[in-house]
Design a protein that fits this description.
Layout (H helix, E strand, L loop, with lengths): L1 E7 L7 H6 L1 E10 L10 E6 L10 H12 L8 E2 L1 H7 L13 H8 L4 H8 L1 E25 L2 E22 L4 E25 L3 H18 L1 H20 L1
Parallel strand pairs: 3-4, 3-5
Antiparallel strand pairs: 1-2, 2-7, 5-6, 6-7
C-alpha cells in the first residue's frame, strides 16, 4: 500500500502573504509489507542507515523523531536511544558491521548471544533513517551598516531549503522488512531589510520531523490496518446504494 499526503501552505514566495505565513510544501509516503501492531512491552530504535559513501542522517533529526514518538502521553511508543541499542548489541550494529539487508539479520541472529541480547533490549522494530536537509536555492541582496546616528539594513534576501528523509522499518522478531516511510518538506525563508531586519523562517527540518514521527506512529500502531474494515464497509454500502 502506498499513500501520498500532500499539503501546501502557499503558492508563491513573491507575495507578502506567503512571506508572512512561511512558505512550505510537504509530502509523506508510506509503503507497508507487514502488519505492525506494536505492544506495550515492545520498543522502537532509530539508527542512521549505514552508508557506503556520503553522510548518513543527522543525529539531531533522529533524536527529534525518537522524542516525538515517545512523548505523546497514553499514545507514547517506547523507544531506545541509538547509543543504548548499539552498546547492548556491540559490535553487531556498529556502522562497519551492521546488517544491510533483512537476510543478513537472519544470519546475525544465529550468532551466540545475539538473539538473547536483542530480546533483553525489548526492541521489536528497527528504523534505518536516511536523508538530510540542504539549501537548494536562494537570491536577493541585503545590505546592513552602522553610522553615528544608528544602524539598519535594506534589501531583500531569500533562500529555499529541502528536508528529504526515508525510514526503512525492520521487524526484528520476524527478521523481515516491514515497510518504509518517507517525508519531503521544502520551504522558503526570507529576510526583509526595512531598517530593522525582518526574518520569515520556514522550519523545514522541524516540520519534517513532525511529519515523519506522525507517520511512523500510524505505522507502528497499525492505524491503517484498523481503518481497512471501515473502508471496505463504506465501499460495500456505496455499491449497495447504486443497485
Amino acid at each position: 500500500m502506498t499513500r501520498l499526503d500532500s499539503g501546501s501552505q502557499c503558492a508563491s514566495v513573491f507575495t507578502l502573504l506567503a512571506l508572512l505565513s512561511g512558505c512550505m510544501q510537504s509530502r509523506v509516503e508510506e509503503s507497508r509489507e507487514l502488519h505492525t501492531k506494536i505492544q506495550k512491552d515492545e520498543a522502537v530504535v532509530i539508527l542512521a542507515k549505514p552508508q557506503v559513501e556520503g553522510a548518513s542522517a543527522e543525529d539531531e533529526f533522529m533524536h527529534c523523531v525518537s522524542g516525538e514518538l515517545a512523548g505523546h502521553g497514553a499514545g507514547a511508543i517506547a523507544t531506545r536511544t541509538d547509543e543504548q541499542f548499539t552498546d547492548a548489541l556491540f559490535p553487531w550494529f556498529e556502522p562497519g558491521t551492521a546488517p544491510l539487508k533483512p537476510e543478513a539479520l537472519v544470519a546475525l541472529l544465529t550468532r551466540p548471544g545475539v538473539a538473547e541480547k536483542l530480546a533483553a533490549s525489548g526492541v521489536r522494530y528497527l528504523v534505518w533513517l536516511d536523508g538530510g536537509t540542504q539549501k537548494t536555492d536562494g537570491g536577493g541582496s541585503l545590505a546592513c551598516g552602522a553610522a553615528p546616528g544608528g544602524a539598519g539594513c535594506i534589501g531583500f534576501g531569500w533562500w529555499e531549503k529541502e528536508s528529504n528523509y526515508e525510514a526503512t522499518i525492520w521487524d526484528l522478531k520476524q527478521a523481515k522488512s516491514a515497510g518504509s516511510v518517507g517525508t519531503n518538506v521544502t520551504g522558503t525563508s526570507a529576510i526583509i531589510g526595512a531598517v530593522v531586519p525582518l526574518p520569515f523562517i520556514a522550519r523545514v527540518e522541524g516540520t519534517a520531523c513532525n511529519r515523519m514521527a506522525g507517520q511512523l506512529r500510524t505505522f507502528f500502531t497499525g492505524s491503517d490496518d484498523d481503518m481497512e474494515p471501515a473502508r471496505r464497509a463504506a465501499v460495500a454500502q456505496i455499491k449497495s446504494a447504486k443497485k
